[in-house]
Task: inverse folding
């Protein structure tokens, strides 16, 4: 029986099974095919990947494994290699290939938001410096944004956001997260802001800002549905792209990679209505 799964830790909250099942049903794939949540931390990652069988369609990968899985891939798509993280694994004929669909998900979610608001993005700010932040840099590049800033607590290390920026061929202005005034100035100067911060991290900061003006904002967090940061930007009139929008688009590309067929986006979006 064919199967797929999402791996990471913690994983109980993941909506990937709902999205993939909705896509599979729309494609008329067998109801017996299963998509599971499999709790997998860094310590058990190697054993988990070595246990994949011939019935596995692929794996969705979430934190904290997006960078670590690169060590187990036989091949990596150019986007994943440049970003330094993959969120999709597809086994075929003994070859495990890693793909990054987060870039596609972020780009499409932002494209919908800026298009609806009539915004032409020029300057962007990314909050955070992890794997998703690196994907956000790549996604913003596809939208034609060349003026990029990153606000984070740290920037160094071999898996850093600066290393990813170098591979992507872009320069970023560094803004220290601890300097609230500098972060607020960077927000005011940006016409696109993407937060890749974990849930709760920016809650206190969100209460100190009142961003106004014509801009788009994406918070990759989708639980809770409305973060204090998202509410601050929404109250200031920003065009909002939600984490659920990113989730749908990145999952749709995963379905294509795993099954070879294009899913129905509207069907996948409808499956997430209870969480909107």
Result:
């Amino acid at each position: 029986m064919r199967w797929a799964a999402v791996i990471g830790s913690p994983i109980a909250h993941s909506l990937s099974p709902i999205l993939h099942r909705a896509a599979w049903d729309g494609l008329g794939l067998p109801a017996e095919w299963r998509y599971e949540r499999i709790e997998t931390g860094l310590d058990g990652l190697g054993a988990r990947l070595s246990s994949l069988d011939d019935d596995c369609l692929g794996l969705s990968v979430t934190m904290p494994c997006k960078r670590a899985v690169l060590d187990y891939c036989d091949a990596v798509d150019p986007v994943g290699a440049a970003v330094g993280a993959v969120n999709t694994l597809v086994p075929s004929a003994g070859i495990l290939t890693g793909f990054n669909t987060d870039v596609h998900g972020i780009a499409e979610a932002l494209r919908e938001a800026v298009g609806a608001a009539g915004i032409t993005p020029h300057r962007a700010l990314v909050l955070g410096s992890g794997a998703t932040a690196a994907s956000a840099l790549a996604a913003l590049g596809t939208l034609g944004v060349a003026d990029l800033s990153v606000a984070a607590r740290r920037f160094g290390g071999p898996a850093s956001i600066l290393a990813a920026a170098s591979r992507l061929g872009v320069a970023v202005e560094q803004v220290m997260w601890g300097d609230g005034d500098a972060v607020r100035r960077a927000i005011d100067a940006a016409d696109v802001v993407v937060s890749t911060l974990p849930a709760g991290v920016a809650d206190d900061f969100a209460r100190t800002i009142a961003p106004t003006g014509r801009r788009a904002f994406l918070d990759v967090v989708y639980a809770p549905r409305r973060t204090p940061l998202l509410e601050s930007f929404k109250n200031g009139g920003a065009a909002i792209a939600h984490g659920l929008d990113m989730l749908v688009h990145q999952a749709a590309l995963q379905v294509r990679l795993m099954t070879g067929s294009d899913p129905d986006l509207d069907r996948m979006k409808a499956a997430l209505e209870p969480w909107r």
